[in-house]
Design goal:
alpha+beta; 9 helices; single chain; 4-stranded mixed sheet
Length: about 200
């Protein structure tokens, strides 16, 4: 395939080559390469976002802009960014068999780890044996999330009615003040949303 052709033209050129040689393996090999590249891109993006986030304060832009706002400028959904950051944060802790799975399979697993859930050896084996995303989600929901959170895990919450901002740790509630959830000022609401995103707090 000629390098100066566009990807679409390359596909047509490849098809002509396969037809000329009457060789379907040429097309199948290209499809397989594209599938592998698609899975790799997700993990590369996760690592890129994670390292970018870790080093954000070293950039002069951090003095005037927020990390989330910079990513919004290229239309990256903030919730997806959080998922990808969690994937790479826990990636090295995942068994090799789990690391090899597509990134969409890693998201519910790393979300559970982020939320403080422990995963037993039996459940890791179930996750590795899972044949699709639905089985992984079922294992996370039924077998992992019905267990107690790890001791010492801090869960931060915001009471959506009163604005009470508090955390639970080791079975004790710790109040950290109030956020003005009823404010009509859009800037205040933006501040609250950024606070929730940055701390992983949940509305109750």
């Amino acid at each position: 395939m000629t390098n100066d052709l566009s990807p679409f033209d390359q596909v047509e050129s490849l098809m002509q080559e396969a037809l000329k040689k009457d060789d379907v393996s040429i097309i199948l090999s290209q499809i397989n390469r594209m599938l592998q590249a698609r899975e790799l891109v997700g993990k590369v993006l996760a690592k890129t976002l994670y390292l970018f986030h870790q080093n954000w304060n070293s950039f002069s832009a951090s003095k005037s802009d927020e990390f989330d706002d910079v990513l919004n400028s290229i239309n990256l959904d903030p919730d997806n960014v959080k998922r990808y950051l969690r994937v790479w944060r826990f990636y090295e802790q995942l068994p090799e068999g789990i690391q090899d799975r597509p990134i969409r399979d890693l998201i519910p697993i790393t979300n559970a780890l982020h939320q403080g859930y422990s995963i037993s050896e039996d459940n890791w084996e179930k996750l590795e044996r899972a044949s699709n995303l639905s089985e992984i989600q079922r294992t996370v929901t039924v077998d992992i999330k019905n267990k107690e959170r790890r001791k010492g895990t801090l869960q931060i919450n915001l009471d959506n009615k009163t604005g009470s901002y508090y955390g639970w740790k080791d079975g004790e509630r710790h109040d950290a003040g109030f956020l003005d959830v009823n404010s009509t000022d859009p800037v205040v609401q933006e501040i609250i949303e950024k606070t929730l995103r940055s701390t992983g707090a949940r509305r109750k």
